[in-house]
Amino acid sequence: MLNDLMEKRKKTLAESEEHKNRRNELNANASKFARERNTLNNQTREFVEEAQKNKDLRDKYNQEVLDIKAQRNELNDKANVLFEDIESFKKEHGTQKNRGVKELQKQIEYMEYRQQTEVFTTDKERELIEKIKQMKGQVREQEAELEQNKEMRTKITEAREFRKQASDLHAKVTEVAELAQKHHDLMVESYRKADKSREAADAAHKSFVEAQESADSEHKFFIACQKELRDYDKVISGLRKKTKKVKVTKEQKAVRKEAESLFKNFRAGEKLTTDDILLLQRSKLI
Q1: Cβ atoms within 10 Å of 83's Cβ, excluding its own
Q2: pTM of the predicted model as reported, rounded to 2 decimal places
Q3: Burial class (CB within 10 angstroms; exposed 0-12, middle 13-18, buried 19+) of 129
Q4: What is the pLDDT of residue 98?
Q5: Are 277 and 256 in contact (CB under 8 A)?
Q6: Whole-number Å distance between alpha carbons of 187 and 52
Q7: Residues 6+ apart with CB under 8 A from 209
Q8: How far is the C-alpha of 68 from the C-alpha of 21, rounded, in Å?
């Protein structure tokens, strides 16, 4: 029975070691996944912060675009008022030979806008540039005629200056709008990276939870094996003590029997050796 118990204890001990090793391996994996998750979460926060910075810059530049456009429109309005006065003067004095300066200027601005924003063949673009050149020539001709009048000359100079300032602001609008678009694109890219990083962090967290749960399960099996080993140790220890006690009792009986035989011989007159006397004393017969 003792041998059977020892064999079962050996098997349980092996199972306990397997569960312990597997638990330790799973805990190590869980720690690795936790580190990956934490790194990815930090990365996600950095991407979100970067996106927010670019969003703030985009909004700032968009507001600048609105402000500059308002200034540009105000300058254009001032120029238009002056050009309307010039047109009225031309009508009153019969000097209008071609289309009005204001109308020509609008046509020029429209064609220049098309040139900047549309795609043309080389021939078509050359043709458009030539038209713009001709219209500008007509504007100069009409303005040269009007400049003979001092008052009109002053208004034309002011109107040109307003147009120039408005044109400069329009260039500024384009520049700032491009900055706003740049930061918008950077914001979108940062949010895209944040989403990707967040997905990876969620996957790492899922792996962490699975590894941790498996480690906990292996730990429970390990604890159960440890309890079983303690139970085996108690039973085996008890059996060993009992076996030892039985052995001692048998030895004591054998010694007693031998001592009684020696004592009988002693009483019959036989001589005793020193060892015989010690044996009789240990058996408490003398």
Answers
A1: 23
A2: 0.57
A3: middle
A4: 44
A5: no
A6: 7
A7: none
A8: 70
